[in-house]
Amino acid sequence: MDVASAEFLLARLERENQALALNPKTILVQDGALRADQSTLKEIALTSTTYSTKAPTENGEASDGTDVDFWSSIVSDYASTLHKIPHLLTAKVRAGIPPHLRSQIWSTMSGAQTERFASLYPLLLNEDSPFDRIIKRDIPRTFPKLSMFKDEGGEGQMKLYRLLKGYSIYDADVGYCQGLSFVVGPLLLQDMSEVEAFAVFVRLMEDAPPPKKANSNVPHHPHRSYALRTLFTPQMTGLHLMLYQLTELVRLHLPALFAHFADHGVTSTMYASQWFLTLFTYNFPLPLVFRIFDIIFAEGAAETMLRFSLAILRRNEERLLMEPDFDGVLLLLKGQELYAVYADDPERVVKDAMGVHDWVSEAGLAEMRVG
């Protein structure tokens, strides 16, 4: 897409974004955040006009209904798109990034520095990792039923091994920790090269955003700090903080469930540690996991994981309150039944998570510090 076409497209999309912000029948923007029912967001994302400089017979919409021009604007100039049409962008991402575009969109939204790692990644693989044996031990346990990873020594397992080995050398403070393979797996399942997946993984782990582009004219940094590495450092400070925040949020918003957990000695560490350390990939099906990843890249890791945790607990609250003892509560929390209530429909989970959006904010989380 040339510069003139990109500018024209962004101008048209910006007008659509303004229409969304001003139309109370479809969406409400309050305090800089999107307020709408998830079904409304999905309808907006699927039915909004396709904006294109092409002739009407070539209107930029793929045969599967994908709004090619909108997603192209993300790839060509994410910073400007985020700045000019944040509400439309949020609606689109929450409704689900088209699967065949996820690799590009995830890479773009994360700010992955693929060019930097094109030369560095092979150098890392030439080094010896002190975690080599542990990584090799864990690889067969990662998505063993998926065709990409099920063959011992197969291409999928080798990609996973090399990426984890490379990261263990790149970030010596983290090295390797159980759970990381479940974070990497969903990246490799997209149409990404190893280097691209490594670059995105590094961005998910980093606790600072990448350098802002020198020629950027937008007032705010377009990329987030996902800070997943704080969950995997030896002290696991990020994990402890998120578990504390989840406990406090349950106390504030689900008081009956909080009391029930307290009565039976159930703590967030016992069930949510696995959710957070694997970004839900260990406990929930991949179609839902990919939707969670979509929103993580756009809205942040901690905020997104806490919203989905609260939503799932809220949806299952009645069933959890019926469990009479510690074993029953924990069995439900750690099993597959939590998702069964959604009848294998990821859209319902996303809708629930967006329904508790206001329960979790960056400012609110900042006030929740251990001790």
TrEMBL record:
Keywords (alphabetical) are: GTPase activation
Pfam families linked: RabGAP-TBC
Annotated coiled-coil positions are: none
Matching PANTHER family: GTPASE ACTIVATING PROTEIN AND CENTROSOME-ASSOCIATED, ISOFORM B, RAB GTPASE-ACTIVATING PROTEIN 1-LIKE
Q: Which domain of life is it from?
A: Eukaryota
**InterPro entries the UniProt entry points to:** Rab-GAP-TBC_dom (IPR000195), Rab-GAP_TBC_sf (IPR035969), Rab_GAP_TBC_domain (IPR050302)
- What is the designated name of this protein? Rab-GTPase-TBC domain-containing protein
Listed GO MF terms = GTPase activator activity; small GTPase binding
Residue ranges occupied by any Rab-GAP TBC domain in the UniProt entry: 96-300
